[in-house]
Fold this sequence. Notes:
- The protein has 378 residues and is of the alpha+beta class.
- The protein has helices at residues 5-21, 25-31, 41-49, 68-81, 86-101, 104-115, 228-233, 236-264, 276-304, 312-336, 339-342, 348-356, 365-375; strands at 119-123, 139-143, 146-157, 162-170, 181-187, 193-197, 206-216, 221-222, 266-267, 270-271.
- The longest helix is centred in the middle third of the chain and has 29 residues, at 236-264.
- This is Alkylation response protein AidB-like acyl-CoA dehydrogenase.
Amino acid sequence: MRLTPTQIAYRDAVRELCASLVPDEAARRRLTANDSLLHSEEAATAFAERDLLGVSLPEADGGAGRSFVEECLLLEETARTGVPLMAYSTALTAAQSYLRFGDATHRRTIVESLRHGHAESISFTEPEAGSDLASAQTTARRDGDDWVISGRKTWISFAHLARHLLVLTRTDDTGVRHDGLTLLMVPADAPGVTIRAIPTMGAHMVNDVFLDEVRVAGAAVVGQVGEAWRHLGRGLAVERLIIGAMCVGASQRALDQLVAHVTTRVQFGKPLSKKQAVAHRIADLATEIAVLRSFVYDVAERIDLGEEDALNFEASMAKLKGSETFKKTTLEAVQLMGGYGYGSEFGMEQQLRTAIAPTIYGGANEVQREIVARGLGL
Ligand SMILES: Cc1cc2nc3c(=O)[nH]c(=O)nc-3n(C[C@H](O)[C@H](O)[C@H](O)COP(=O)(O)OP(=O)(O)OC[C@H]3O[C@@H](n4cnc5c(N)ncnc54)[C@H](O)[C@@H]3O)c2cc1C
């Protein structure tokens, strides 16, 4: 696809800001607190001050009303340059449910939050409800006009930074389990909410969220009571594409560093890049990333054309291929950089650890393969 002049100007503004925030590796390490953070509020504020966030969100709700292609450019460029802005991708995903199903207050609140660079969380997964989300057991019971929520969510990205939690609750357990699920917008600082970091192989991203008799007003319901399952079935294409776009940038970052290493690292009297066995593997990676990029932007363009609800199959492919390409690129890079890939000081092992997560979140890749297989009629 060809970018429009507006999209090119936007990408250039994002690139310029990325370059000023992360002019070198020392600056990147400072912003990420030595790779212990995937999101920097300082970076998010810098993007917000330049009006670079929430560009796809509807004008009627306070957004810029432009394209999803531009969101993908932001996700790609920040991942490519290592600018820690990852909570924005979660917030953008959460925003889709509020925008599709929320009332005017939900929509305005969420758009304002994103435009200011605040984090937002999606609180769906539970200890006993992972891939099988319809078995969620966190309850919300009516008490007058209010809802009172009790339960536990787990693996919740950036809940520790978020303004609100979009909580999947069970409001009725008498019928079919896919019915009786309801989405609620919960302030992250509401009494009864406890957020606890979960240690992982990557930087701090995920949390346990404990909800102990958390009271919210009736207006906190996003969409229809009992309709969350059908609501969540829509908007998934955007969520998966967001992951795909981040993976384009993250894969390119690993590739760029790998190329820089093998062209300067001399062994047997020549740069490693002169070994055909090395160069051809890198050529394969570059080809995969280029094809991935084209596919991701093609899907993004179709979202902008209003075809989102028909893109379930393609969006799953974008998430699947993006996350597998990111993992493969970093794994290959570690191997081809030898000890310099394996050692923590040089950064590639950290990228490899980061690359494991997107194959799991946003629907494990095995689940994406099921969707693709079903789309093929298998
Ligand atoms: C880094 C990270 C961030 C996350 N962020 C969020 C968040 O912000 N909000 C949120 O609600 N959740 C979040 N999650 C949770 C994530 O969505 C779940 O981990 C994921 O859906 C898988 O659920 P599970 O971990 O319970 O694994 P399980 O459901 O127990 O599955 C384990 C494995 O079994 C296989 N499997 C599962 N189902 C199938 C199937 N149908 N067919 C074939 N194989 C299958 C897959 O290999 C899968 O990885 C996050 C997880 C991680 C790791």
